[in-house]
Fold this protein.
Amino acid sequence: MDAIGTNLGMLAVAVAEIVCAAALVAWARRRDAAAEGASPSALTRGERVVVAIVGGGALVAIPLSVYSLLASAVWFASAPVLRVDDLPLGGSTAPGFLESATAVPAAGYDTAWIEVADLPAGPRWLLWAEAALPMALALVLAVGIASLALALLRGAPFARTLPVALGGAAIVVVAAGLGTQVFGAIARGQIISSLGPPELITSHDDGSGVAEGFIFALSLDLSPIGWGLGIALLSAVFAIGTRMQHDTKGLV
């Protein structure tokens, strides 16, 4: 996409955000007016605008996330040549231009990128899963944020569906965070295997006893589990608040 198309796309997103935020503010004001003072909103005008802006952004992000998921699936399925980044590389030696640098005692390459033509379907879909899981996470979070914003504008922040949405978001955070790493590692391992036998894709031993070549590597970052547990705790807090709100008939 050229610069003009990119700028037009960003402008369209900004306009959609403004329209959604304005629509949410107008909806909240009409709802308060229809209540005739029976249940006044707990939000001030400024708070209502802020919540509407955040909720409008989440509503805009939902279709964008869906489009990104579908567009990436079409791309990975049909692209004749795919660039694969972060292929683990073992046995690499120092770059030649550093040989005369006395301040660099050791150097090497950890990863490399390649462009692969006619990639089999298995690695293609694994690479798509690696890219799609963060998009799915963004979609789930956007739905949760939009639901919370609408609940706040309705004057019922402890809606019954909110703990369920947060619990689902916690599961997706863990699944996306770990799944992206696992799918990516498996995809790169299959790609390395599809390139040919080791003797064709590995450099010859230069006498040091080490040959440079691609390797399979998986190093899991477990931080998504912590994020998921934190969101799950927040879901429990909202579940308790929902029960208290029901027991006190909206006094919470």
Strands lie at 81-90, 111-117, 213-214.
